[in-house]
Amino acid sequence: MPPKLFSESVCKKIGHYVYRLVDPRNNETFYVGKGKGNRVFSHIACSIKDTGNFEQDGEDSFSLKYKRIKEIVSDGLDPVHIIHRHNIPEVAVYEVEAALIDAYTGLSNIQAGHYSADRGPMTTSEIVTKYALPAFPNDAEHRLILININHFAESNRRSLLDQVRFAWRISRDRARQADYVLAVIQGVVVGAFIAHEWLPATDSRLGIPTASDMESRSGFIGERAPQAVWDLYVGLNGKRIDNSDLKHTQNPIRYYNC
Hints:
Elements: H1 8-14, E1 16-23, E2 28-35, H2 42-49, H3 54-57, H4 64-74, E3 80-88, H5 93-103, H6 116-119, H7 124-132, E4 144-148, H8 157-165, E5 166-168, H9 172-175, E6 180-185, E7 188-200, E8 218-224, H10 227-233, E9 239-240, E10 253-256
Helix pairs in contact: 2-4
C-alpha cells in the first residue's frame, strides 16, 4: 500500500514536483499534476468524500479524474502515485508538467498544460506555418473573448462555430459584454463570431444534446462575424498571437477590453 502522506522531512527534501496518477488495473496514466508537500495525495481524499477545492483544481466534482479514482477505489485498490520529477525549480515546474501532459494521451486532466495551446506539440510544418502568419493586432478597439479550441476541418466552418460556442465555464454576464468571440488554435486566431445570446449549456435552444452535468457551463447562439471583422482578426489563414497577455496558459478563455 502506498503511503497516505509524506512526512514533513520528505516534503522539504522533494520540493516542487510533477506527478502521475496510474490506474493499477491496466497501468494506464490517467492524470498528470504538479505540486509540493502532500498535493499528490489530495485527489483520492476529495473523490472519496466528494469534497475538496474543485475550483482550485479547475474542474467540477463530476470530472473524469474523480470518476476514475472512485472506480479504482470501489474495486478495492488505490491509484498508483508516481513522482515523475522532484526538486524542480519553481519557475520550471509549469513547463515540466506541460511537457508531461503533452506526452500522455487520453488523460482525465480538464486543463491542458501551461502554454500547451501555444507551445505544445506541433509538426515542423505547423511550426513553419504558424510563425509565417501575420500578427494579431495589439491595438484592437473591440471587446473580445478568445477561446482556445481543438483542431477543426478547414472546409467545415460550421464545425468551428460549434467548437467555440460550447460549453465553457464562463461568467455569462461578462461574456455578454464582448463584441466578438474569437476561436484560437495553438496560438493562432482562426475564426471570429458574434454571440447573440449566452445560455446555460443545458438549454435546448443551443441545439446541442447535453448531459445534466453540464449545468455549470455555458454556450452561445451566434454566427460568423462580418467580413471586415474577420479580415481584421483572422485574415486569410489566421493571425498569430504574440501578445503574452492574450496567450492561453491553462484556462482556455482570455478576455480583451472586457
